[in-house]
Amino acid sequence: MSKYDGTVETTACPLIINDKDEILLIKSPKWGDKYILPGGHIEHEETIVQAVIRETKEETGLDVKPLYLVNIGSVINDPFFKRKAHFVFLDIACQLISGEMKADIEEVSETIWVSPEEALKLPLIAGVETSIRNYLAGVKMNIDEYVF
């Protein structure tokens, strides 16, 4: 049983771009060893930008600068995920700033830097292909955040 059972889980996931215009993909045992973007849950009273920076650091050890949204969507009961779940995901293009790759071994079984075009040939989970295609097409959505 998960603390998220019966809830809608909102996640922030970075589409990290390095100086060679490659993107970072990870394989996750939680997702049937398909390639995904790193990322995770947005915590209570945490902004989207704060969440994507924190999750990137936790899962990869990398520091990023969030740029813009490339995709927003939902995934309900993906057969590759380890449990039934309802996710709303926000995929955010991020510039790699610094850091040394230190993947969280509980979350990540493999990391690769690959061109977006090559990434589209890999086994990806639902939503990631659209995020990559949107990035290649120049789709840029603002990240509006209001904290009072």
Comma- or semicolon-separated keywords:
single chain; 148 residues; alpha+beta; Nucleoside Triphosphate Pyrophosphohydrolase; four-stranded mixed beta sheet
Q: What report would you give on this structure?
A:
There is one protein chain. The chain has 148 residues and is α+β, with helices and mostly antiparallel strands. It has one domain: Nucleoside Triphosphate Pyrophosphohydrolase, CATH 3.90.79. Helices cover 18% and strands 36% of the residues. It has three helices and seven strands. The protein has helices spanning 48-60, 116-119, 128-137; strands at residues 8-17, 23-27, 35-36, 40-41, 62-76, 86-99, 110-114. The chain is globular. The termini are far apart.
Strand order within the widest beta sheet: 4-1-6-5
Count of helical regions: 3
Number of domains: 1
Order of helices and strands: EEEEHEEEHH
Strand proportion: 35-45%
- CATH C-level category: Alpha Beta
- Derived structural class: alpha+beta
Give the overall form: globular
Distance between the termini: 34 Å
Brief synopsis:
With 148 residues, this protein is an alpha+beta fold.
Give the SSE map.
Blueprint: E1 8-17, E2 23-27, E3 35-36, E4 40-41, H1 48-60, E5 62-76, E6 86-99, E7 110-114, H2 116-119, H3 128-137
Parallel strand pairs: 1-6
Antiparallel strand pairs: 1-4, 2-3, 2-7, 5-6
